[in-house]
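Practice problem: predict the structure.
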Amino acid sequence: MVRYMNYSQNTHSILEKYEVDLHNGFLPKENPLDALPPGYEVWDNLNKQLSKAIKDKSFCQQVAELPILEVGKLSKPEMDRAMLLLAGFAHAYVKESEHNTIPAQISIPWVTIAERLNRLPIITHSNLSLQNWRLKDKNQPISLDNLTTQISFTGTPTETWFFNATTNIEKIGASAIPLLLESIHLANNGKYEQAIKLLAKVLPICKDLLAALRKMYEGCDPTIFFNELRPFFDSFVNVRYAGTTPEIRSYAGGSAAQSSLLQFFDMALGIDYGNNPSRAFLVEMRNFMPYPHRTFLNFIEHEYNFKAVKKKNEALNNKCKEIVQFLIDFRNEHLKMVSQYIVRPARKTQSATTGTGGTSPLVFLKDVRNRNVAHKDKI
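Answer:
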């Protein structure tokens, strides 16, 4: 792990502009809030008993008793927490009520906050992984053993492990972000040897990321994940958001494709996905990211990457190839995971294997992996 580096002002400026933290990456710089301010206790209280209320079928009635709260004075961290809770309530309500309607008690404040944050009112990777964590010991750093969740639909260890393992991946990958940015800066200024040395520091992080992904198998049960947890972050199709304009809305649900981390690696390395459905889907998934992060990816893709400069130095190009190989290995592992956690359980229950983001995850991941392979062979 990279403990300390003297990065250029250029790198610091990019990170600051796009709200990417030097140490936490796309995770928030400060720990997510554990509670909302006075006046919003009804939301925190409902969240505390969310899994119990879902199990005993009282959740929809408890939602019906909620007031419609004003949210105009909430701070950014408070809005982030409110987005997490309201997204969880909305998805739980649609699933449990079996009606495609979100009551005004949820939809009005949710849409209001989403518009203020320039985000979409749907459950996302940002809700479930970037904001859905707290430290067991606040004196210790973020790690899989020191994490628990802020919200839980099922109350199962599988759910906690799934979300915490995903948050842990984001944390481990965070230190690669400034390294890649700084190496691009150095290469753009003709300092190829220094750029290569920094890229060499990215490779151990890549190894740790792959190990972190494989950690998922240790505590996440495929049957519980597929049958009990996954339905809570399905897509919304023609769902009525009561009291909002427009009222009828459709959005893709939470998906790993909404993580900025892997897309950042792709864009920084100059991987070209061409004009095809996989690229279109990846670009669409940026709409579900926090606004600063999606603009960051657009900046990296179009203005700040290795695409042109790596052609000027063979050693630099070869080092980039090594990192592309990590992306291939990571996506191969992700394919195995999709097979174990989605395809096989779906066959047992004769369910569809469409991903929560609205695509076939196997088809999408195979195409992305294959384009990584083609890029590595081409450069």
